[in-house]
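Could you help me review a protein record that somebody else here produced? This is what I was given.
***
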Amino acid sequence: MDWLNNYQTLFVGVVGFAGVILTLLYNAKTARVQRDEEREHERKALRAALIAELQINQRSLEENLRQQKEGLPEGKGGAFVPTDRMDGAYQSFLPRIGLLSEGEISKVMWAYLSLETYNAKLFLIGVPVHTGPRHVQVPAKNLQLLTGMQEGMLEPIDQAIKALEGDAH
């Protein structure tokens, strides 16, 4: 038992050091799990916000198309079309877009860039109204162009929504 007395300090040091190492490993694993859970929560919040915003844009375009096909509200005089870009969530979350998969990013970017292009094209086929830059008046001769532009917007938006909903489950 002399050897135990001689190496007692070394033995206690090894056991203590092993305890510290195990504690560090456990804490690192716990922090990693917590970080992964936080990222997944952020990913879900990002998807939910983008889906909601894209659905608002989709419903707005569908309503505009419905009104044009029914001849409402301006009929032969053309149409007043809002130019407000409904992309606040997208702009807010753009720095965190990397939380999404490559497929989701591609579809979301396509949808929002298409919306941006759509809004720019409105000023090419319509004229800003005197009440401010929030609407353009599209003359009757350009209503077919407007309808085509709006119908063309539905596909990228629909694909982005489907990509976000598909990866959410």
Notes: The domain at 2-168 is CATH 1.20.120 (Four Helix Bundle (Hemerythrin (Met), subunit A)). DSSP finds four helices and three strands in the chain. The longest strand covers residues 132-138.
